[in-house]
Design a protein that fits this description.
The structure holds two protein chains of two kinds. By secondary structure, chain A is α/β, with parallel strands linked by helices. Chain A has 17 helices and 16 strands. Chain A folds into three domains: about 80 residues, no CATH class; about 160 residues; about 200 residues, 3-Layer(aba) Sandwich (Rossmann fold), CATH 3.40.50.150. In chain A, strands 12-11-10-13-14-16-15 form a seven-stranded mixed beta sheet, sandwiched between helices. In chain A, strands 1-2-3-5-4 form a five-stranded antiparallel beta sheet. In chain A, strands 6-9 form a two-stranded antiparallel sheet. Chain B has a domain of about 30 residues. Helices cover about 50% and strands about 0% of the residues of chain B. Classes of the chains: A alpha/beta, B mainly alpha.
Chain lengths: ~475, ~55
């Protein structure tokens, strides 16, 4: 038996809608179907014959797609919803959003977007929009997923996606690269991107002369402010012509954006976590024991997804990687995750998806009705969660009681490898040195009592002469 | 409180046609120059040049 649910984030383009098909028999197999109207179906049939499109799919830049056969029962259910045809896309195993991507992930998606639009225009096609939500990361590789965005180009039409590209890709990248402003909370708040009239407020004095600012922020802001002033109240809106832009104009703009974005950099700073592989507090013997413990439980059974929460630069994600289909590696430290991404994207078949996430404030459900973009922990349950030397930060830096953290871990319905860091450990001592609150409730005995409310403790392994302890936890059913 | 304009009748984003026309005209000059430059270079070097700008990926 299957269950077919319309994707809550797929309604903006009226010509199609995505449906997720999952088995009710408990296996992880998921199909992604897309109901399309007659025009979109014919457009796809034409697109599928184009050699530039086939090349993009072969290179892994665009998601593999086929027309679902007429006798497919799931496709028939989608057709009953009023669509003329059904496309089937290769399923992306874990959905992520631009406000979880590092600077280089957003930059790589932006460059891929420009590459796809350039290829399309050179072949008489275009893309109707240009949003990072049209991309997903498969491991550390960006893939374009919104096939109905391709449409044939009417000669002389401008690139309709320019403003969206600017607000959602370019401006966040410029803010980070030119001003050092963290783009992630901005992207999380401005779900439709930062308009140039807002972006201009961040640039003061000489920073307004930095590369790309005059062309893509100051000038568009000036135009938009002038339209807003001229057409407000009862003044009629002026019809603006949408013809007269040659291929050279559009391709020239796309290529200049590409050169601009390639030149944008965000240096990796030395943070507590970005050099974890060299600065961790273990003696080599303890580190070997810890690695072996993680390896044992990663390999214990067939795992689909493993989450490494608080991954630093991914030492333990790499240990888990051969034992599952996907490792989702999370850390709140942007530069540590950036380092992991830059390393993994060089690996040909990496299955590690690095994401920036503050674990005391994970991505919430948001957008229309709070469900257009899913909350991080509502997307897909993992099979194993690594939670190594994290709990003391959750308790003492984020002030979240251990019992609440354990309850949240239990809600993931997953096995857990957890490393408890005792009060005597030098890293906890450092953390408490200048704190008035000394978290008297934070001790291993209380932790064990609370953990046993939600989990069965299947194994324990002391580290660093008992200053730390590894636990393997199995969720208690019910 | 929102920092973006509430839904209203004015659509300042429609100005992107003006923006892309102006930026497109400027970019087209460079694009056309580069196109003919590489064509000429290929003709001079007998068609074997690999100096064409690389596609972005």
């Amino acid at each position: 038996m299957t269950e077919i649910v319309a994707n809550a984030g797929s309604f903006r383009d009226p010509v199609n809608r995505v449906y997720e098909v999952s088995s009710t028999d408990g296996n992880n197999r998921k199909r992604i179907l897309r109901g399309v109207n007659q025009d979109a179906l014919e457009s796809y049939q034409e697109l599928a014959t184009q050699s530039f499109y086939k090349r993009l799919v072969e290179q892994g830049h665009v998601i593999k797609t086929d027309i679902a056969p007429n006798d497919d029962p799931d496709a028939l259910s989608v057709i009953e919803e009023g669509w003329s045809g059904v496309l089937e896309h290769e399923a992306v195993s874990f959905v992520s959003y631009p406000y979880e991507w590092t600077f280089s992930m957003l930059r790589d998606a932006a460059l891929l977007q420009l590459h796809i639009i350039e290829q399309s225009i050179e072949n008489g096609w275009t893309l109707k929009d240009a949003t990072p939500y049209n991309f997903q990361f498969v491991g550390p590789r960006a893939v374009f997923i919104d096939i109905p965005s391709f449409e044939t180009r009417v000669e002389g039409e401008p690139w309709g996606g320019y403003r969206q590209f600017s607000s959602m890709f370019l401006i966040p990248l410029l803010l980070k690269s030119h001003l050092g402003i963290d783009q992630l909370p901005i992207l999380r708040s401005y779900i439709d991107g930062v308009p140039p009239t807002e972006a201009i407020k961040y640039f003061k004095g000489l920073s307004r002369l930095k590369k790309g600012v005059i062309s893509h922020i100051t000038f568009p802001a000036m135009v938009e402010n002038s339209i807003a002033a001229r057409e407000r109240d009862r003044a009629p809106a002026q019809k603006r012509t949408t013809k007269g832009q040659s291929n050279a104009m559009v391709l020239g703009l796309v290529q200049s954006l590409s050169r601009l974005i390639k030149g944008l950099k965000s240096d990796i700073r030395h943070t507590d976590w970005s050099r974890y592989d060299k600065t961790h507090s273990y003696e080599s013997e303890d580190f070997v024991v810890k690695k072996a413990f993680v390896q044992k439980y990663a390999a214990q059974s067939a795992r689909d997804h493993i989450w490494d929460i608080g991954c630093n630069t991914g030492t333990f994600s790499n240990i888990c990687s051969p034992h599952c289909n996907l490792v989702v590696s999370l850390d709140g430290d942007h530069d540590a995750v950036e380092k992991l991404y830059l390393k993994e994207k060089e690996e040909k078949s990496s299955n590690i998806l690095p994401l920036v996430m503050n674990l005391s404030n994970i991505s919430p459900g948001q957008g229309w009705a709070g469900s257009e973009r899913q909350a991080f922990d509502k997307r897909k349950d993992p099979d194993l969660v690594l939670c190594l030397a994290l709990i003391h930060h959750i308790r003492m830096s984020a002030n979240v009681p251990n019992i609440l953290f354990l309850k949240w871990l239990r809600s993931l319905n997953s096995d857990v490898v957890l490393e408890f860091v005792n009060r005597e450990d030098e890293m906890v001592v450092k953390l408490l040195t200048n704190k008035k609150e000394q978290y008297a409730d934070y001790d291993i005995e209380q932790f064990i009592r609370e953990a046993e409310l939600f989990f069965t403790i299947e194994n324990r392994e002391p580290l660093k002469d008992g200053k730390r302890e590894l636990f393997f936890l199995k969720p208690i059913e019910g | 409180m929102s920092t973006t304009e509430a839904y209203a009748y004015v659509d300042p984003g429609s100005g992107s046609v003006i923006v892309t026309t102006v930026l497109g005209l400027i970019a087209a000059i460079g694009y056309t120059f580069r196109k003919y430059f590489y064509k000429l270079k290929r003709m001079i070097s007998g068609g074997g040049s690999n100096d064409e700008p690389k596609k972005d990926t």
